[in-house]
Amino acid sequence: MKLFKRAATLSLLFFASFATVASAEPATHAPNFSFKDIEGRQHQFAEYRGKWVIVNYWATYCGPCVAELPALNSIARRYKDKVVVLGMEAGETPTADLKQFAAQRRISYPVVPTQDSTMFALGLIYGVPTTFIVNPQGQIVDTHMGAITVAQLQNYIRQDKRSSIAEEKDTCKTGVC
Q1: Is 171 domain-assigned?
Q2: Does the bond joining 129 to the residue before it have cis omega, within 30 degrees of 0?
Q3: Closest C-alpha to 52, from 143, 125, 132, 170
Q4: Domain of 48: which CATH number?
Q5: Neighbours of 69 (CB within 10 A)
Q6: 3-state class of 44 per DSSP?
Q7: Do residues 91 and 61 touch, judged by C-beta distance below 8 A?
């Protein structure tokens, strides 16, 4: 059964890679939902109001997902007071394996194992990686399908003229700062 689920997921991802994903409607409000991270800590999405929230749906067996981990880590560390990154694992990896994977990759943001409450909380996921960008007012400002870069994430955040990040000069030359 597990093999069937993985095969079905990979098939969906393959076909979804050819699909075009439209951006989320402007001003779509993100709902509140609860979830547990890999450490068993309970979270409410509404707790992050007032910060940018980068919600990244990914899987341990997805190459582009693994490739974007340094960018997400960089944003999580560099803007820790203004941005929250949530890694929503969508591949049904067992929690013990997910903990080991996160430790090996030195993931510095909350990693959330697959849960019913998280899978479609912000919208449809046509494949992984899919990233939802939520502004400090709690609105989904965009949905990005495919691997995301530091520069792309910074562009979303800098759109908010009220944020001190908008005026910040980019001193990052490597893309992983």
Answers
A1: no
A2: yes
A3: 132
A4: 3.40.30.10
A5: 22
A6: strand
A7: yes
